[in-house]
């Protein structure tokens, strides 16, 4: 498994840095910097107490935790959230409680999301009069399920 060095500014020294629960995991756990309760249907932006300096050519993708989704219906609203290489502010996670009846309580330091780092390329967008043909063509949403 490849590793990259990522400078991390610990904005909240009482919290752990993002970390992998198991060797070989793709996602590093992000922790809540606050105690809060998400009411049914509520969304809330939660700080993680860390800021990163990702290298150019890399992106951080903030994904929901599968256990929170399965047990409580809590997800990351804009999943995956995008952390660009040039961003230096605190990582924040927009959580949503999709449960219609039950509130979900979080303690400071609870795992709320996971951060996946991925290499990215930038495209050069070139205007053309026509696009080359393909089997799918211009068929839109749902067109492959006929």
From TrEMBL:
- Catalytic reaction equation(s): dUTP + H2O = dUMP + diphosphate + H(+)
Which SUPFAM superfamilies does the UniProt record give?
dUTPase-like (SSF51283)
Give the enzyme's EC designation. 3.6.1.23
Q: One Pfam family from the UniProt entry?
A: dUTPase
* InterPro entries xref list: dUTPase, dUTPase-like, dUTPase-like_sf, dUTPase_trimeric
What CDD domains does the database record attribute to this sequence? trimeric_dUTPase
Q: Which stretches make up the dUTPase-like domain?
A: 16-145
Q: Which GO terms describe its molecular function?
A: dUTP diphosphatase activity
Q: Which residues of this UniProt protein bind substrate?
A: 65-67, 78, 82-84
Specify the pathway.
Pyrimidine metabolism; dUMP biosynthesis; dUMP from dCTP (dUTP route): step 2/2
What does this protein's UniProt record list under function? This enzyme is involved in nucleotide metabolism: it produces dUMP, the immediate precursor of thymidine nucleotides and it decreases the intracellular concentration of dUTP so that uracil cannot be incorporated into DNA.
Read off the NCBIfam families from this record. dut, PRK00601.1
Q: Which family does it belong to?
A: Belongs to the dUTPase family.
> Would you tell me the protein name for this molecule?
Deoxyuridine 5'-triphosphate nucleotidohydrolase
- Which source organism does the UniProt entry give? Nesterenkonia lutea
Designated gene of the protein:
dut
